[in-house]
Each structure stands twice: as C-alpha cells, then as structure tokens.
C-alpha cells in the first residue's frame, strides 16, 4: 500500500511548498528512526509554554532536531529537514473531587523545512485550535463552498 504522507510531501516539494505532518503508529519504521534520533541527539532548538484554563494546566515543550543521516535509506531522507517532538504534560482538576489528574503525551512530527521551535509550536497549537472549535469547522466548510 503506498504511503499517502510520503506522496503528500513529494507533491509539496514539487510545487514549492512546505509542510509538517504528525508521525503516528501507522508509520512504524519512520517512527522508530525518529525515536532513535531524539534519544541520541540533542535538539537544535526548543521552547516551553504553559497554558492555564479553568481546572486545567498544560505545559508543552517543543524540541526541533536536524534530520542529518538519521533517515538515510528510508525513502524520507530527501523530503524532511526537521523532526519535531512535542511533550505535553497536562493536569486536569476533577470538579467533583478537587483532585488533579496528570496526563503525559509525546507526539512526533516531520517537516520539510527547518523553522524555529516557537514557529513549530504555534503551527501545531493553532492546528489543534482549528480542529477543536466547532465554529471553525462551520466557517471553513462555508468558505470552501
């Protein structure tokens, strides 16, 4: 089965565009190489942020890694300039008990362009803002019709 993400990167490259894509478990070979890269190489850039909301606190660390030779032989080496790791530590307060429940999540992204960590952080955060706001979906559907 062809890799849709890889084809999307090729199309972006061929048309002079850049993109960032989350790497998930459905790309086990690529994910394994990325995990090895971040375990053995220091990031070239990083930024931290904290978001506070009602009964919720989220600390995020965004780290950017140069791809180097880590993707050689994978078919991805000519398509990616950066690997991004986002670590989210969230605490949510249960209204009924008043107790805080911690949650930790790590996500990996590949990008066709090297950017500052703060730019990657904004792009990833803003994407989720669009995905999580129902009114944004309605506006987007309306704008596309």
Overview features:
single chain; 145 residues; alpha+beta; five-stranded antiparallel beta sheet; 35% helix; disordered C terminus
Write the layout of secondary structure elements.
Blueprint (H helix, E strand, L loop, with lengths): L3 H11 L5 E4 L4 H13 L4 E9 L2 E11 L15 E12 L6 E12 L5 H16 L1 H11 L1
Antiparallel strand pairs: 1-5, 2-3, 3-4, 4-5
Describe the structure.
This protein is an alpha+beta fold and 145 residues long. It has one domain. The chain is built from 4 helices and 5 strands. Strands 1-5-4-3-2 form a 5-stranded antiparallel β-sheet. The longest helix is centred in the C-terminal third of the chain and has 16 residues, at 117-132. It is elongated, with a radius of gyration of 17 Å. It starts with a helix and ends with a helix. Mean pLDDT is 83; it is low at 139-145.
Summarize the structure.
By secondary structure, the chain is an alpha+beta fold. 35% of the residues lie in helices and 33% in strands.
Helical proportion? 25-40%
Mean pLDDT: 83
SSE order, one letter for each helix or strand: HEHEEEEHH
Shape: elongated
- List low-confidence stretches: 139-145
Number of helices: 4
Radius of gyration from the CA trace? 17 Å
Largest sheet: 5 strands, antiparallel
> What is the strand content?
25-35%
Distance between the termini: 32 Å
Number of domains: 1
Can you list the strand order of the major beta sheet?
A: 1-5-4-3-2
Instruction: Please give the number of β-strands.
Output: 5
Structural class: alpha+beta
């Amino acid at each position: 089965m062809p890799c849709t993400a890889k084809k999307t990167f090729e199309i972006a490259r061929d048309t002079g565009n850049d993109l960032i894509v989350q790497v998930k478990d459905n790309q086990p070979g690529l994910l394994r190489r990325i995990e090895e890269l971040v375990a053995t190489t220091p990031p070239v850039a990083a930024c931290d942020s904290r978001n506070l909301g009602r009964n919720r606190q989220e600390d995020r660390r965004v780290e950017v890694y140069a791809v180097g030779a880590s993707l050689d032989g994978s078919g991805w080496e000519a398509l990616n300039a950066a690997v991004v790791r986002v670590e989210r530590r969230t605490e949510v307060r249960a209204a009924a008990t008043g107790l805080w429940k911690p949650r930790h999540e790590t996500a990996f992204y590949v990008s066709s362009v090297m950017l500052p960590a703060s730019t990657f952080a904004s792009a990833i955060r803003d994407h989720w803002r669009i995905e999580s706001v129902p009114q944004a979906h309605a506006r987007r559907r309306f704008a596309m019709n």
